[in-house]
């Protein structure tokens, strides 16, 4: 997705640069329009629908009032960058969260990049501080364990980066990338093996099966927060010979 945004923004930037010296404020608001339009287009691709009429109107009005009718072409350009034939079908999704220790230790980019480099696709992301009640819902299957209350206190103690990742086999292999629950037993090369030391501060959560993935995604995200799109890289990540 970031590549698409970059392409759309790059196109917008070069068009702005080549037009007759627009005021910086107008330029940045147009850029924002372009990004939002591309985002709206991408968000709608997976649902086979078009740009919402109200937004299209807003876009058109804004674009023409600034004298930049070309801005309306950006969603279409973003659309054309898609390869509609490649992996259009919905793939497996898992819920991954960087816990407060991982966020506070500045490990967000390290962890996100491991999923990204593997070839999985980010379809939802947000930073939230869950309440203790919410943490108890998330860990409901552990309520009989002696560490349950402390665990829920910890999860609700600060920002958590909640994400949904998509890809073939992502639930099981995501757990492999994460490593064993107790970092002292996690293999080197795994996230917990490389970046954590004790079980009480093991920095990351990942769904442990299709049912929990479904439940956890539904607990942390509203359906409209999940973005369906085709990444241009998919044709190089998937394939049979
Ligand atoms: P995982 O997070 O690998 O799915 P889990 O679901 O069994 O592991 O446990 C959830 C979290 O609870 C885990 O990430 C860290 C904490 N936890 C598990 N076992 C623990 C223990 N023996 N002592 C303290 N915390 C524990
Ligand atoms: Mg678990």
Automatic annotation (TrEMBL):
Its cofactor is Mg(2+). It catalyses: a ribonucleoside 5'-diphosphate + ATP = a ribonucleoside 5'-triphosphate + ADP; a 2'-deoxyribonucleoside 5'-diphosphate + ATP = a 2'-deoxyribonucleoside 5'-triphosphate + ADP. GO terms for cellular component: chloroplast thylakoid lumen. Its EC number is 2.7.4.6. It is an enzyme of class 2 (transferase). One of its GO terms (molecular function) is ATP binding. The active site is at residue 205. It comes from the Eukaryota. CDD domains: NDPk_I. Gene3D superfamilies: Nucleoside diphosphate kinase-like domain (3.30.70.141). It is found in: Plastid, Chloroplast thylakoid lumen. HAMAP family: NDP_kinase (MF_00451). Major role in the synthesis of nucleoside triphosphates other than ATP. The ATP gamma phosphate is transferred to the NDP beta phosphate via a ping-pong mechanism, using a phosphorylated active-site intermediate. Shows the highest specificity towards GDP. Homohexamer. Belongs to the NDK family. This is Nucleoside diphosphate kinase. It comes from Triticum aestivum (Wheat). The gene is LOC123071123.
């Amino acid at each position: 997705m970031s590549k698409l945004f970059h392409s759309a923004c790059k196109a917008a930037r070069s068009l702005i640069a080549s037009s007759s010296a627009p005021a910086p404020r107008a330029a940045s608001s147009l850029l924002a329009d372009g990004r939002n339009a591309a985002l709206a287009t991408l968000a709608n691709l997976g649902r086979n629908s078009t740009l919402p009429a109200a937004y299209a109107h807003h876009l058109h009005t804004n674009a023409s009032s600034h004298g930049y009718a070309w801005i309306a072409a950006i969603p279409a350009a973003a659309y054309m960058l898609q390869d509609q034939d490649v992996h259009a079908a919905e793939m497996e999704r898992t819920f991954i969260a960087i816990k407060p220790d991982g966020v506070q230790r500045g490990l967000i980019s390290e962890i996100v990049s491991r999923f990204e480099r593997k070839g999985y696709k980010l379809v939802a992301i947000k930073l939230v501080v869950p309440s203790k009640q919410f943490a108890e819902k998330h860990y409901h299957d552990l309520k009989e364990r002696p560490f349950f209350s402390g665990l829920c206190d910890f999860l609700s103690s600060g920002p958590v980066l909640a994400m949904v990742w998509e890809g073939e086999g992502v639930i099981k292999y995501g757990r492999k990338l994460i490593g064993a629950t107790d970092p002292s037993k996690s293999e080197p090369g795994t996230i917990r093996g490389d970046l954590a030391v004790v079980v009480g501060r093991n920095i990351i959560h990942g769904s442990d099966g299709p049912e929990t993935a479904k439940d956890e995604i539904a607990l942390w995200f509203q359906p409209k927060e999940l973005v369906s799109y085709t990444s241009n890289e998919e044709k190089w990540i998937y394939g049979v010979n």
